[in-house]
Write the structure tokens for this entry.
Amino acid sequence: MAVDQVEHEISATSGYSHAHFETRRRVLRFLLKYIGFTLLAKLDRVEGLENVPPVGPAIVMINHIAFIDPFVVLHVLPRNIVPLAKREVYDYPLVGIFPKIWGVIPVKREEIDRRAVQQVMEVLRAGQIVLVAPEGTRGPELQQGKEGVAYLASRGQAPVIPVAVDGTIGFPALRYTAAWREPGASLRFGRPFRYRSEFQRAGGAQLRQMTDEAMYILASLLPEYRRGVYADLSKATQDTIEWT
């Protein structure tokens, strides 16, 4: 489906109420802190948390190497955020209840999911933060990012906060097992950027360029062995972005 047709079908009226989810998210954050990151996962280091704005819309963009990556970000961020996740996570045994209660936005992969796009725009219009893993799948090294992150950030006029994730492979694991003897999770929050106003209606090749420029910024925050297809930072450009 064409980009302009998708945009035509996205509602301009926000139906998202952050307050509706606040109580349940506070409960889940409590469980994450006192069960998840006490008994099941180890957090070693967080850098650059000051780069997260205290108010206003934003898109947190992460690399995705392990199942718990979004949970680590949810645990660390001082604000409640709304992650995107593949539709299948709702069907996982036991842990599938978590995204339902939190209000995670389910995404149909391999197609333009109009409903998911609409929900993201509603969250951004409400002045809140969305979490996106632009690779669309997990892997030890960066894979080519999908254009959705550029589309959402440019149409939503929201800054992007790149977050490099490492040390999450092997978790969740029970405390005192072998995994806990290894380094734990680390997060590195980069400087926010936004797409220049002239790219607000970009499509096609421009969205590809915008995505790759964002992915190179994310790659620069990662250790070399995690950069994957974005390993050659000399190829990075910043023609479509501006720093906030």
Summary: Residues 18-40 form the longest helix (23 residues).
